[in-house]
């Protein structure tokens, strides 16, 4: 395992557009860091620069304390797993696992021992003599990871490794990856579009936007205390309700003093909006609304409420099945302790004033 230190790294592809804009990220040895962000924000580019598959335009990347800017991928002691697995189709599973080690001139006995161990950990022993096309997607995925594991690298880089799998297999593999990474203790940088993977896998979650880091921290920090409108909107599914204060005021609502000056948008998560005043203790904002639609999504229901003057509906998460009628009037209660306030101009959080909250 190794640390990965990324300092003021920039990337401009030929053609001139800067896609990574002076990015700093420090990854501890053995840490599992998940990168998320919208399509095109530079996640794969960053991973490929760490791996040495893309040149670094400016700045420095060090792995295990050694600057790797000018090292070939093979010299960086890192293993990358891609979304499409990239297995050699004409080789057996065993052949795929052995290939990298053979190329490095690893002794036969050592190759056999490592392949055996990886096959055991990943439960792919029964398929060692099959070709990749004779495997299911999840089995191929495990072979791709096996190929990374046998090398015993300083770090793994995974770029959306589970995106081809169905929901059930993804869930299974997610748990396997976490267990594997803990067992091996290898530093892992993991790119995903999946909120659940991001929340459950990460020691540290990094939200990228437009080639820069928007916020980093534990998954709960990012979910519970987003510092920008972008992170507030990006994390969570369904996302946080972001309500335009000017629209609320225009519709005649008055906001309590606890909402600080300069707040252009208030945010509240769907699970923090309540229909029953009795479930809220402490000060709250009450908005008259009309429940327009309800979706049952298994263990909970999502209700969509129209609030006078607002251009979008407010989403509420209701535990269990919805027992009321759709198309009914209802008051929405937004507890101030759960409210997130943002400046519209800067897109940044405006802290709630504690004394006003207590009042
Ligand atoms: N080889 C290349 N030449 C020029 N531009 C590129 C190249 N590769 C990527 N880009 C551009 O760089 C930006 C970042 O791309 P990148 O693949 O890193 O995004 P990403 O965050 O991984 O997106 P996704 O979530 O869709 O995989 C995009 O605007 C993309 O068009
Ligand atoms: Mg990508």
Automatic annotation (TrEMBL):
Keywords: ATP-binding, Cell inner membrane, Cell membrane, Membrane, Nucleotide-binding, Sugar transport, Translocase, Transport. The keyword Transmembrane does not apply. InterPro entries: AAA+_ATPase (IPR003593), ABC_transporter-like_ATP-bd (IPR003439), ABC_transporter-like_CS (IPR017871), ABC_transpr_MalK-like (IPR015855), ABC_transpr_MalK/UgpC-like (IPR047641), Mo/tungstate-bd_C_term_dom (IPR008995), NA-bd_OB-fold (IPR012340), P-loop_NTPase (IPR027417). Belongs to the ABC transporter superfamily. GO terms for molecular function: ATP binding. Transmembrane segments: none annotated. This is Sn-glycerol 3-phosphate transport system ATP-binding protein. It comes from Pseudochelatococcus lubricantis. Residues 4-235 form the ABC transporter domain. PANTHER family: MALTODEXTRIN IMPORT ATP-BINDING PROTEIN MSMX, SN-GLYCEROL-3-PHOSPHATE IMPORT ATP-BINDING PROTEIN UGPC.
């Amino acid at each position: 395992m190794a640390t990965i230190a990324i300092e003021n790294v920039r990337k401009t592809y030929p053609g001139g557009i800067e896609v990574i804009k002076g990015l700093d990220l420090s990854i501890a040895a053995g840490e599992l860091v998940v990168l998320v962000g919208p399509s095109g924000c530079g996640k794969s580019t960053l991973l490929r620069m760490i791996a040495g598959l893309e040149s670094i335009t400016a700045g420095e990347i060090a792995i295990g304390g050694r600057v790797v800017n000018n090292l070939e991928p093979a010299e960086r002691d890192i293993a990358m797993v891609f979304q499409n697995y990239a297995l050699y189709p004409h080789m057996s599973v065993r052949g795929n696992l052995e290939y990298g080690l053979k190329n490095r001139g690893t002794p036969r006995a050592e190759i056999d021992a490592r392949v055996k161990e990886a096959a055991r950990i990943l439960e792919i022993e029964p398929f060692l003599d099959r070709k990749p096309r004779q495997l299911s997607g999840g089995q191929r995925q495990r072979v791709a990871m096996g190929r990374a594991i046998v090398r015993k690298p300083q770090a793994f880089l995974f770029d959306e490794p589970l995106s081809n799998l169905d929901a059930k297999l993804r869930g299974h593999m997610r748990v396997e990856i976490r267990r594997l990474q803990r067992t091996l203790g290898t530093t892992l940088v993991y790119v995903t579009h999946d909120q659940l993977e991001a929340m459950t896998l990460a020691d540290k979650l990094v939200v990228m936007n437009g080639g820069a880091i928007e916020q980093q921290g534990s998954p709960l920090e990012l979910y519970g205390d987003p510092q920008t409108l972008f992170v507030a909107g990006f994390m969570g599914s369904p996302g946080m309700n972001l309500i335009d204060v000017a629209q609320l005021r225009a519709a005649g609502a008055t906001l309590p003093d606890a909402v600080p000056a300069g707040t252009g948008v208030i945010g509240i998560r769907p699970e923090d909006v309540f229909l029953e005043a009795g479930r809220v203790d402490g000060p709250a904002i009450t908005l008259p609304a009309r429940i327009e639609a309800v979706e049952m999504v298994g263990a909970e229901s999502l209700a969509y409420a129209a609030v006078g003057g607002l251009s979008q509906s407010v989403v509420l998460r209701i535990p269990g099945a919805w027992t009321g009628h759709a198309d009914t009037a209802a008051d929405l209660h937004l507890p101030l302790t759960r409210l997130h306030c943002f400046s519209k101009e800067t897109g940044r959080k405006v802290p709630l004033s504690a004394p006003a909250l207590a009042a």
